[in-house]
Amino acid sequence: MNIIEKIIASHSDKAKVVPGDIVDIKIDARVARDFGGPNVVKNIEKYGLDIDDVSKTFFTFDTNPTGSDQKYAANQQLIRIFARRHGIKVFDINNGIGTHTMINKGLAWPGSTTVTTDSHANIFGAIGAFGQGMGDKDIAAAFHTGKVWFKVPKSVKIIFVGEKPANVTAKDLVLNLLHQFGANTLLGYAVEFYGHAVDNLTLDQRITIASMGTEMGVIILLFPPDEKIMNYCRKRSGSKLKKIEADVNAHYDKEFVIDLSNFVPMVSRPGKPHDTVNIQEAKQVKIDSSFIGSCTNGRIEDMQAVAKVLKGRKVAPGVVLKIVPATDDVWQKCLDNGIMKIFKDAGALVSNAGCAGCAAGQVGQNGPGEITISTGNRNFPGKQGKGSVYLASPASVAASALAGRITTEDDIPDKPAVFDHLQRTEELYKATQKHLEHRQNPTYVEGRIWLILIDDIDTDMIYHNRYLQITDLEKMGQYIFDNLRGYKDFSKKVKKGDIVVTGKNFGAGSSRQQAVDGFKTLGVQAILAESFGAIYERNAINAALPILTYDSLESIRLDNGNVIGINFKTGEIVNKSKNLSTTVGPFYEVQMEIYRNGGLF
């Protein structure tokens, strides 16, 4: 048997397996992340499942360790509570990428099996272990039974000959493989690597290559572990591990001999990781940003390579360089060895350890039209943001950040490329130059009221900060009062022309304009309050959203749903439903001027 077959057989009730066999595999480590993990929990609770062995069961929080997203924060807390109840170990947001943690902590070792909700779990091939990313149902079943069913794959043997050029990194090596095999030539195969060049690869280099097996479409890229890998894993696991090797007469469906001396530094062009070309073909591409990190290139050797390029230099004007170490251990080594200072002196932004750019909402995302060069493993449209992403080695990304354009570490210009003065786009030009025909807003309105007599409704209750990235006015209204208890469905029930009547200090808190503009989007005609937060009052007036203050409305006996009329000039308010009237403070002169003008501008 070859390596994958030996691992599967040793974890099943079979003495021998062949491709096509479907067997139940015992899983040494069953892992769920903060991505996918909440659904694992829900499946377990929905079906009343227990946990097979908590000592082999783990959660890893790596997709959003910054805690910057409300939904991730809620999911992480859901998992923490579940884990406490069952005694499951959580590697929390201060830890780093889960697959790396499993290797570093000795929870995965040569010949072992691991499944996780991470699609790059085949990274364990770097140490000669079985690793698979699976869906939440599979992982929930693994938590419960300690096993998963699996179909034994066919295997491919790749033998490397020749000497790897000095300027070709591990990332370049796997990009060259992607260039040769694409995303589907080896689809569904387990691949084993052999040759003198493979024997010389470090653990960090093996991890870089193994982590992109997913992009090649393979089940796993397996490195037979050498003595250095074995000793590392023995130390980390505290066990006397036996080296796993393929039999001399092991069968492979295909074999390839590849000459490494022909390999060159590469980049993947935006859209497809396997659309790789010699980096020379992309050298003049001007970049906006650069990203170094991910499970592919966030190890200490990657950070050292970047520091070597950045030392004593500055990132090009207008270019953003973001660096995210893979684990907290790598982060600490960067701090202890002075690498962190090199990063900061160069002008880089360094975040805490985690997946970063691959996970939406994290450091490494880019915006529309932004051109990024990244050490990540994927550059599918929308994966790392709405811009275009090139993939390259850490050294090439660092060099490009200094040059302001895509380049290599041996071709960093004395003067970086700078941005030309950018002319306004046609759309922006039209928007700013268009003559605004302001209608004369009415000074008397009538509408149905929402009686929300709550004091100190702050802007987070009105429009929560998790929606602040939204810039389209038309999309803001749906989130009004989303965070106010009892009024989450306000945006669904409110009608155009409605009026809000509320208590003291309405709009306290932050300066966010969205808490005003959202009401306008919904068609709310006016807001009456005993008082307004100072910033909110200015924002509302400048946006021509009618607001008025009152001392008391008791005399007109308002009930929820009454129709009232308001005269902004005189301050007269009439409860049309009960034919009662009173007077409140009218618009003052500047408020009326801005309102009649349709807004401050």
Walk me through what this model shows.
With 601 residues, the protein is α/β, with parallel strands linked by helices. It folds into three domains: 3-262, Aconitase, domain 3; 266-403, Aconitase, domain 3; 444-597, Aconitase, domain 4 (Alpha-Beta Barrel), CATH 3.20.19. It is built from 20 helices and 25 strands. The protein has a seven-stranded mixed β-sheet with strand order 22-21-20-19-23-24-25, covered by helices on one side. Helix 2 packs across helix 5 (136-145) and helix 6 (170-181) runs parallel beside helix 8.
Explain briefly what this protein structure is:
The protein has 20 helices and 25 strands.
Itemize the secondary structure elements and their pairings.
Layout: H1 3-10, E1 22-26, E2 29-33, H2 37-46, E3 57-60, H3 70-86, E4 89-91, H4 98-104, E5 113-116, E6 130-133, H5 136-145, E7 147-151, E8 155-161, H6 170-181, E9 190-194, H7 196-199, H8 203-210, H9 213-216, E10 220-222, H10 227-237, E11 254-259, E12 266-268, E13 276-278, E14 289-292, H11 300-310, E15 320-323, H12 328-336, H13 339-346, E16 349-350, E17 371-374, E18 388-391, H14 394-403, H15 426-433, E19 444-452, H16 459-462, H17 490-493, E20 499-502, H18 514-522, E21 526-529, H19 534-542, E22 547-549, E23 563-567, E24 572-575, E25 580-583, H20 589-597
Parallel strand pairs: 2-3, 2-5, 3-4, 5-6, 8-9, 8-11, 9-10, 14-15, 14-17, 15-16, 17-18, 19-20, 20-21, 21-22
Antiparallel strand pairs: 1-7, 12-13, 19-23, 23-24, 24-25
Helix pairs in contact: 2-5, 6-8, 11-13, 11-14
